[in-house]
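User: Structure please.
Assistant: Input sequence and predicted structure:
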Amino acid sequence: MSSANVIPLPSKARIDLAPLDEVNHRVANHLALLAGLIQTQAAAVAKGPAQFAREDVRGMLREVAGKVVGVSQLHRRLATMQGGETIDLGDYLIECSQALVKSLVPAGHVGIVHRIDAHCPAKVEQVQTVSLIVGEVIMNAIKHAHPTGIPVEISIYCGRNSSGRKVVEVADDGVGLPENFDPGTQGGAGLRLIRQLAASIHAELNIESDSLGTRFRICLPHEPATIAS
């Protein structure tokens, strides 16, 4: 092909896209984290029964697919970032949760309401971890909120508290956690993973539950003024 047939990339696009080496580095880190999450899930399976029902295996594969969707959404956003080190957390959670639900369940089985109160720029690593937490909460709600199989309603809030710290809340309208259940220490692989992810970014995690549903609240640590602004 002659050089006359090559259409050059506009210079503005070359400037706006994140540097390729930076994107590659972050993709490698995120894929390593994803592999670790899947290995944690595999370790939990190894402690279970010798044989699983077909529906249980189907659910496990859907969970893996959900994790892949979450990381792929972040990679897509990184590839088109126009400089800077932050992503709007609220906007990203809308995008990521919609993609996750669409990939996991038939249309109409899950309803999501988003309440985004404020512009919430966050570091890429925080966005990745929070989105993984939110994804785990959504998957847990799909599995456990309504044992009878009726559609579940999930609300996602992103804003700031009175001290200016970013807060993300995910709530469902299900039957709640079992009586005398301690979400801070008990639970299966999903809850353990949620606690570990929150601790990895020094976020406060609060879980409330009653007969009207379960609410997860993630409060991110204070940040430098350059990020908060």
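The two ends are 49 Å apart (CA to CA).
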